Structure formats: C-alpha cells, structure tokens
Amino acid sequence: METKLALFGGPKSVTFPPEDMFTWPIITKEDEEAVLDVLRRGGMSGTDVTKKYEEEFAAWQGCKYALAFNNGTNALNAAYFACKVGVGDEVICPSLTYWASATPAYTLGATIVFAEVDPVTLCLDPNDIEHRITERTKAILVVHYLGHPADMDGIMAVAKRHNLKVIEDVSHAQGGLYKGRKLGTIGDVGAMSLMSGKSMVSGEGGMLVTNDQEIYERSIAFGHYERFGKDIQTPELQQFTGLPMGSQKCRMHQLSSALGRVQLKYYDARCEEIRKAMNYFWDLLEGVPGIRAHRVPKDSDSNMSGWYAAHGIYVPEELEGLSLTRFCAAVRAQGAPCSPGANKPLHLHPLFNTCDVYGHGKPTRIANSDRDLRQPPGSLPVTESLNARLYSIPWFKHYRPEIIEQYAHAYKVVAENYKQLLADDPGDPENLGGWHFFQHSAS
Ligand SMILES: *Cc1c(COP(=O)(O)O)cnc(C)c1O
Hints:
There is one protein chain. The protein is α/β, with parallel strands linked by helices. The chain has a domain at 29-261: Type I PLP-dependent aspartate aminotransferase-like (Major domain) (Aspartate Aminotransferase, domain 2). 30% of the residues lie in helices and 12% in strands. The chain is built from 12 helices and 12 strands. Strands 1-9-8-5-4-2-3 form a 7-stranded mixed sheet, sandwiched between helices. 50% of the residues are buried. The chain binds pyridoxal-5'-phosphate. Pyridoxal-5'-phosphate (PLP) is lined by residues 71-73, 76, 97-98, 100-101, 143, 169, 171-172, 193, 195, 206. Pyridoxal-5'-phosphate binds next to helix 3.
C-alpha cells in the first residue's frame, strides 16, 4: 500500500523523543568520583592509575600486555614502530578508514600501499593483498571497520606465507569477537582509540595490546621514556634505555585512565544491550529492497561488539537507481538520522599523492621508494564505489523495541515508496563522505 512520505507532507515515522537512546558515553557518579579523586590529589601526570587500568585492560582483552597512550593515533604509531616498520618499508592498509590507520608510515619514513575492502564486511579483502606484496612489505594493517571483524583467517594466512607482521586497528571494534577470539590479539599487535566518540571510552586515549614481549618493549621505547628503564628485557633495547627512541611522549592523562577504568567495568554489559538493539533494528529491515545490514551472520561466534558508527549498505539497483542522497533526505524527513557516505578513500587525498611533508623534494608517499606506488582514481574501484553505498543508521544504546520500531519504519517506508522520490532526484554529488568522522547521533 502506498504511503505518503514525510518529505511530501505525510506523517513522520519517529514520534517518540530520543531521550537517552543515543547518549554516549554513559557517565555515572562512579565515573565522576574516579576523575575527581585524581584531580583532587593532583595525580594527573602520574602512572599509578594508568598501570592499574593497563592490568585490568590486559585481563579483559585476554593478552599479556596492555600499554596506555594519550590517543589512538599514537598507539598506532607505536605499533608500527614496534613492528620495525622503517625507512623505505611498505605497509598494506585499506583505503576506507580513518587517516591514523595509515599515517604512522610517514612518521617512520615508510609508505602505504592501499588494498581493496570486501563490499560486504567493508574490511580488508584477503584476496587483494598478495599481489601487492614486494620485498619492501613489512606489515599488513587491518581495520575492523565500523565494528565488523575483518576476515582474520584469510589475512593471517597471507601474512604467514610472506612473513609479515599484522597490526589490528581496533578503534571501531573494542571487545569484538572473530570466531570467538577477541579482536586485537589475533595479529601481532592491536592498537585502538579510546576517544569519547568511540564505543570504548577513556576520554582521550589509546591502548596497545600484544602477547609479544619485544613488541611491548619497543612500544615503551617509542613513547614512554620514564618506563624505558631497567625492566627492559630485549637485548637490543637495553643499551638505549632512559631516553625515548621515538621522540614521542605518549603517556595517558590520568583523568582519562581513571575514567577508562570505570567505563571498562560496565563495557561488556552495555555492549550486550547495544547489540540486542542494533540486531533488532536490522531484523525489522530484513528483506526490504535497497537495504542491507552491515553485520555478522546470525548464530556466528563473531560479533560487532559496540557497533561504533553503525552504517547500512545501500543497493540502488533495487530502487531503480534512486540516489543515496535522495534516499537519505527522505529518511531524515521521516525523523531518523541518515547521512550518506562514510570515510572518503584515503588514496585519493593529496596527502597520499602530492604532499611533501618533510621536505624530501618529492611527495612523501614516494620519498623513500624506488618506484611510484601512488594509486590514482579508478585504481581501487570497490573502495571508490562504497561512499555512494553507505549511510549512517541510528546507533542505539538501549533496547527499547517500540522506539527502535519507529526508526526502522523510517527506512522501510522510504524504501517501499521509493517511486515517489525518483522524479526530483538530484543524484549524488561527486564526493560523498568525509575525511574525519561522520554524524551518527540522532540530532
Ligand atoms: C579514531 C580512530 C583512530 C585514532 O584514534 P584517536 O584516539 O582519535 O587518535 C585510529 N583509527 C581509526 C580507525 C579510528 O577510527
């Protein structure tokens, strides 16, 4: 039955006020007390609270070592350094990700070779890695994009065959599972953001996790000068203790570690409710033309953890080519958040093509390479097509079926009445998505 869409004066789908459905992080008296305690005793620059946080984090992660950082970007920088990525080396990385997955290569005189993502998982495609490996390839950087675990079996098999390190960027998927294993400890090292927009929060912060002692100690050497001392066991590092090898100071602010400790205590229970809510939303949209869930198969022993920045996949072919921009505008008119696009492909930005960051006299991307490995438009067709196929969906923090049903209705009624939208479809602009982060709140 035809329903008049809200865009044309029909009724809205969402009538309940959002209240705290989208509020994140959840802050209670306990968080406030923990932060105030550090503040009142002037412990901001210490490491006592941070070390407790690391211990608890490692136990929760199920790994030997956890090392806290002032942000996720620096945790990734340290992970690259720890894997001995150096001058002239290449790291294979998806182009559909946040910049900090890739830019540590520049800091270390290395460079990036981008590979395709799988259009269903949106994570690194294990079948697009091997032909990009050269004698300079040192590591593979995996992103569990928008909370979806990457195909780690496929990726680890390629890495083993070529003796490459695997770095997991877990910034979208803290606590997520791949075949029952926690993300971040399947590869050689995991690094993640804990900034306040992510599903796991310490304020501003990052964490590096590993089972490898040398990787752990190189990460300390990189940016934790006051911990780079007599306890270091790795022989090559012992002679250099006392001063940081990376010219970086990456210590976590203890207002952050105090907050992070409290957040960690409640994280799994809160994520369980998020998963229940998000899976219910997608269940309601199962089989609707034009719309596909971005989620792991049901009854698998993988999961999406906290569903950071949840998105859906758009199939315009099923809606006579209706543009994503027009689709999203109609969903927003129904009262649900829906913005087109996600992260713009990194390989198309001038930073990865023309920019000479350090004054080499040539673009940094190829400053230490013996070939031009830049990747022009058209070189990663799957990745380049995805911003016209991804749209944000509501990121529910609570399981409240009646409210979730209203939001799901907003998408469903638009998809089922898409013909009303074809006439005035302006099409998609050249470039959907953004370089930084994207809106995922209700407002
Ligand atoms: C947020 C993010 C980072 C960087 O973390 P910060 O804490 O913001 O420095 C790295 N990688 C990905 C995929 C991210 O989303």
